[in-house]
Amino acid sequence: MSATRRDFLKGTAMLGAGLATARLATPALAQAKPKVVIIGGGPGGLIVLRELVNAGANAFDITLVEAQRQYTTCFYSNLYLGGFQRIETLTFDYGIVAKLPGVTVAHDLAATVDRQRREVVLQGGARLPYDRLVMAPGIDLDYGSVPGWSAAAEERMPHAWKGGAQTRLLKSQIEAVPDGGLIVMIAPPAPYRCPPGPYERASMMAWALKTAGKSKARIVILDPKERFSKQGLFQAGWEKYYPGVIEWLPQSIHGGVQSVDPATMTVVTGFETYAGAALVNVIPRQTAGRIAREAGLTNGDNYCPIDAFTMASRMDPAVFVVGDACIPGDMPKSAFSAASQARAAASVIRAELTGGAKPALEFANTCWSLIAADDSVKIGGAYAPSEAKITERSAFLSKPDESAEVRRDTYAESAAWYGELTAAMFL
Ligand SMILES: Cc1cc2nc3c(=O)[nH]c(=O)nc-3n(C[C@H](O)[C@H](O)[C@H](O)COP(=O)(O)OP(=O)(O)OC[C@H]3O[C@@H](n4cnc5c(N)ncnc54)[C@H](O)[C@@H]3O)c2cc1C
Hints:
By secondary structure, the protein is of the alpha/beta class. It is 31% helix and 25% strand.
């Protein structure tokens, strides 16, 4: 090796070491664009990406690491189960994202994060250095949390809590439920993605049964919780549209799910055995995505604590965690929340990397749920940072006695939101 090349490499190594220790200096190589690596191309990761691109002037060198080539939104997937959406309209690819200025898309798995060196290592072997890392891998499912259930069992007893093949499978299983058949849903313990999601799903399953003329089929929800999001609104809707079809049982009534047996489609609780179910939808306990946990960004609750004033990890100020993987304080884990956190994080990253003023963050969320055709309800709030967490400042909830017109307008709002969010992500 020539002296010149050796000296260069030595200099680079020293520079690397310096960068690792100078915790949050703006990028040392003044001529290089700041490097931002984003793990996860859901609403969390993609809205950060879009906001940084929109900052203009091709200012950042952004790499999106996303394992999948296509993304099927979980949000609005219940409406596919009910027959209100087609799966094709919920599925997007990353073609346009890859053409944005300054953006590279790596369709690979982020295998590890070397936080000392500030590098993401891909399964394919590439190493991606970063000045700021955005961690947005969503959730992992805890397959061990329901005795008898496993990754192998998800073909018989689907979760459909990640979008794509599982969503299609659940839909085909709903269609195959015979009249008089039993659907058992095992709801997840908090915290989990989309608090009203299981109950909107039950509504959409009931709608599918009703429109297929299967008036004798039943849905039992075994919940590890004692109450759930928008409970009064859902239960009033179930009584109105699907009387006697949906039975919700809290932990104190069913005594806990003891085991499931995918071979016989049996679910055993502390009080009853449901044998020969036509469909068992297991929505298990959830954690932050593996990469976030293995990068040492989670706490004992298996989610990532963040500084609510910046969305930076409490474990590493060069890493920002947005979306379902973070601990969002009073916000629910939702696509709306993920996008709101992403906008906040992007504004802080931009300020840190370009020397701008520190922004004051604010957050918002709305979760809509469709109970029956044109009957949508919503819950939401506005939030601000505090020392401890993202804190709720105001909240709203649909009223039980609203007119059909209000409910229809609420549905239209949800459709507009879905269109705007997916356009900001993929179009
Ligand atoms: C049935 C259902 C209904 C829902 N309805 C709504 C709704 O109406 N409104 C709403 O706001 N929210 C809804 N949600 C919640 C919403 O889908 C999630 O909150 C949202 O998707 C979270 O976004 P995210 O970016 O954090 O994670 P995700 O959307 O899960 O995206 C994470 C991405 O990271 C990728 N990834 C993970 N690990 C790696 C790795 N190591 N390397 C590379 N890539 C990786 C994954 O492939 C994935 O594409 C619903 C969820 C469900 C299940």
